[in-house]
Design brief:
alpha+beta, 274 residues, globular, Aminopeptidase, 28% helix, 32% strand
């Protein structure tokens, strides 16, 4: 890692989680300390930070799904350190690491503010993605799903998503067991402000609707749901269940063309996960 004056570029570590959680909360994002811990456990080499005078100033994460795909996320800079090029430094380092690893495709979900930076680093726009929300109360507790070792709910995911993210799914399922019907599944988890719906993969609208309805019924918490507007079935279910669009982002990619099967993706895993 590199150090210039009082600035130090290094790997993010477990001791940074409280400060990283404060950083994402300052940006009004929904990640919890457990979300940061998931990224660190799955990709210890890809989670990067810049510290200034011993304080966490900026972060970027790179989560690799084999060598076919890697996901960039958590591009954050503390307000007092913005406009000092920290995001570009971290992204450049992450991309160099991905190239060294031989990653074929790198993707991210970009805000309007971030798109020019990502474009200058070789990313191209693929499609729109939106966050839909439903109001409610505290998101600390969620009803558990149900699954069994015999259920093949993971089998469809790599065909739809385009890469093997089984380690991520296993981690999320350990924390909050999924709802599954045949090869379709839905995961959910608590968030800092709202509960989070996703990922949800299904090739059948009726199955997807049933799982989502079961997940949110009898809950009083607020929900967030990230979906592709191109999947009109997902949009229709979200609207029927009282969700409305809140944020608009653009999915961007660098490297080899790799597209998801949007019509079977009813909810993504998260802007930082894909």
């Amino acid at each position: 890692m590199t150090e210039t004056g009082r600035e130090k570029l290094r790997r993010l570590c477990a001791e940074d989680i409280p400060a990283a959680t404060q950083l994402s909360a300052q940006a009004a994002w929904n990640q919890t300390a457990e979300d940061w811990r998931t990224l660190l456990e799955l990709s210890p080499e890809g989670c990067l930070a810049i510290e200034v005078d011993g304080h966490l100033a900026a972060t970027t994460t790179l989560l690799c799904y084999g060598r076919r795909l890697a996901w960039l996320g958590m591009v954050l800079t503390k307000s007092e350190y913005q406009r000092r090029g920290f995001a570009r430094k971290l992204l450049t380092h992450a991309l160099e690491y991905a190239d060294k690893m031989g990653i074929a495709t790198i993707k991210l979900d970009a805000t309007d503010q971030g798109q020019p930076l990502y474009g200058s680093l070789g990313f191209r726009s693929e499609q729109e993605i939106e966050r839909w929300s439903r109001p409610g109360g505290n998101a600390a507790q969620l009803p558990a799903g149900r699954t069994s070792v015999e259920e093949p709910w993971r089998d469809l995911d790599s065909l739809v998503f385009g890469a093997d993210r089984s380690q991520l799914l296993e981690r999320l399922a350990q924390l909050n067991p999924p709802r599954s019907l045949s090869q379709s599944y839905l995961l959910s988890r608590p968030g800092r402000v709202t509960a989070y719906l996703g990922p949800c993969i299904s090739e059948n609208l009726g199955t997807a609707r049933r799982m989502i309805e079961e997940c949110i019924q009898n809950t009083r918490c607020a929900w967030s749901w990230d979906l592709f507007p191109r999947n009109q079935d997902a949009v229709a279910v979200a609207r029927d269940l009282g969700f409305s669009p809140q944020r608009h982002l653009v999915r961007m990619a660098r490297g080899k063309e790799l597209r998801e099967k949007e019509d079977a993706i009813y909810a993504i895993a998260g802007f930082e996960l894909g």
